[in-house]
Amino acid sequence: MRNLRLADGTSLPVLGQGTWMMGDAPRRRDEEIAALRAGIERGMTLLDTAEIYGDGASETLVGEAVAGRRDEVFLVSKVAPSNASRQGTIAACEASLRRLGVERLDLYLLHWRGRHPLAETLRGFDDLLAAGKIARWGVSNFDVDDMEELVAIEGGERCAVNQILYHPGERGVEFDLLPWLEGKGVAAMAYSPVGQGGTLLRDPALAAVGRRHGVSPAQVALAFAVRRANVFAIPKAGTTAHVIENAAAADLVLTPQDLAEIDAAFPPPARKRPLSML
Ligand code: NDP
């Protein structure tokens, strides 16, 4: 699996695993755990969860999937904006750690901006860093103006990652946010990179590119997301077949012809667009 380096030198796989909507249905539990473990075995060792996913059910599932192999994985979770006061951030993180059954998160994100001042949340992150409960922090769903505000706060430049919606049908971030993040050494983590398994995967242009390489539209979408040096992606797959397919996408290199065809079907942005989020 190809790697990407964070600004602090940490090397991470370009493809990780999302877990939104996992852990909700008892009858799917065994299959979901098997899928996550299959992904880890194929190098997708970064696992993304959040306290709000299934009200903690996703974190509990991830904890079960990584039990006994904590050192092989890079765990990401997120504080909900409503909890993101200084003390609330600490309490939320401690609850996430309990559900995951681990001592420390590798990356802790503010899920999106809410009513608590960013400076408050950052103090919470600082306290968690000092206590060894998180190794680094970042944000999610931050547009350029949010990032500017963040880095103007003391310590704000230590933001490691901005997790954002990015796939061929959502390219607005290419206009300004992705270049901004590249310039500041903040990695971009693409969420919903296969368009949540919806119409994107039935798109004729992605299918045509895929046929040329003998791969699926989902694999084309993933290769598209991680083609830039600063972007990694976290597809969610609750089935081992999808996980195996996704992991293989890390080896797919899109040609200029492929990219031209994707551009024709999904034109890159010609002007600023407000950041889309789910
Ligand atoms: P994805 O784009 O990852 O799509 C997931 C869906 O696509 C599932 O239904 C899955 O099916 C299907 N799928 C996965 N791989 C394939 C494949 N190879 N072929 C066909 N279908 C496939 O959407 P998500 O919204 O889940 O985004 C990924 C992750 O990003 C989330 O799980 C979450 O961790 C994070 N996220 C973060 C957000 C934020 O605000 N920070 C917002 C949204 C997501 P199946 O499960 O049946 O295998």
UniProtKB/TrEMBL annotation:
<dbReference type="InterPro" id="IPR023210">
    <property type="entry name" value="NADP_OxRdtase_dom"/>
</dbReference>
<feature type="domain" description="NADP-dependent oxidoreductase">
    <location>
        <begin position="15"/>
        <end position="265"/>
    </location>
</feature>
<dbReference type="Pfam" id="PF00248">
    <property type="entry name" value="Aldo_ket_red"/>
</dbReference>
<feature type="active site" description="Proton donor">
    <location>
        <position position="53"/>
    </location>
</feature>
<protein>
    <submittedName>
        <fullName>Diketogulonate reductase-like aldo/keto reductase</fullName>
    </submittedName>
</protein>
<dbReference type="InterPro" id="IPR020471">
    <property type="entry name" value="AKR"/>
</dbReference>
<feature type="binding site">
    <location>
        <position position="111"/>
    </location>
    <ligand>
        <name>substrate</name>
    </ligand>
</feature>
<dbReference type="InterPro" id="IPR036812">
    <property type="entry name" value="NAD(P)_OxRdtase_dom_sf"/>
</dbReference>
<feature type="site" description="Lowers pKa of active site Tyr">
    <location>
        <position position="78"/>
    </location>
</feature>
<dbReference type="GO" id="GO:0016491">
    <property type="term" value="F:oxidoreductase activity"/>
</dbReference>
